[in-house]
Design a protein that fits this description.
By secondary structure, the protein is an alpha+beta fold. The strands form 3 sheets. Strands 2-1-6-3 form a 4-stranded mixed beta sheet, sandwiched between helices. It is elongated and about 80 Å long. It starts with a strand and ends in a 10-residue tail after the last helix.
């Protein structure tokens, strides 16, 4: 299970392990938490009291301090795995839902014709449709898009990374995802 790390303003920063979260707790770096504790880590015995130390790790923690510059990037990194989840494993041309191994990253404007490898130029396509379109524009191949591409928000990107997300974490992330996002449906 991973912990969702936020900055103090509530902006998602990263998925971290419970051990990494424990280090932040131990160094008094947690500003606030959300959700019920999801794991309890136990340490050694205190010499004076004889009590065992313990840290209750919450599924969402906000960390004190400066915000890393990576949090302010404009667009999340594009990968096939995240693209396929964004598009719900559905081919943008024929509308069939496919297994990941049967899908490809399709460039609306082919890279051979100056198209960029960006969220706004890439959609999910099944192998047959991608082959049929080839290095043509959709209108040249007489193939229309069933949905349009978009750049995921930072909150959507945290969902698209394919982690096992706990209910508290998903609720927090989806609350900031635009209502027209395909991740809602």
């Amino acid at each position: 299970m991973d912990v969702l790390q936020l900055d103090v303003s509530g902006r998602p920063q990263a998925w971290i392990t419970t051990r990494e979260a424990a280090v932040i707790y131990a160094s008094d770096g947690v500003a606030w938490t959300l959700g019920d504790p999801c794991q309890v880590l136990r340490g050694g015995l205190q010499r004076i009291s004889g009590r065992q130390s313990r840290i209750e790790v919450h599924p969402i923690i906000a960390v004190r301090g400066a915000v890393p510059s990576r949090a302010w990037r404009q667009a999340p990194a594009l990968s096939n795995a995240k693209l396929f989840v964004r598009d719900r494993f559905i081919c943008a041309y024929c509308g069939h839902r496919c297994l990941p191994e049967d899908l490809t990253r399709e460039h609306i404007q082919p890279t051979s014709r100056g198209g960029q490898d960006t969220w706004m130029n890439c959609i999910t396509a099944c192998r047959p449709c991608n082959g049929r379109k080839g290095s043509r524009l959709p209108e040249e191949a007489h193939m229309s898009l069933l949905y349009l591409p978009y750049v995921p928000s930072l909150h959507e990107d945290m969902i698209l990374r394919g982690r096992r997300i706990l209910a508290d974490q998903m609720e927090f992330l989806l609350a900031s995802v635009p209502s027209n996002s395909r991740l809602h449906g």
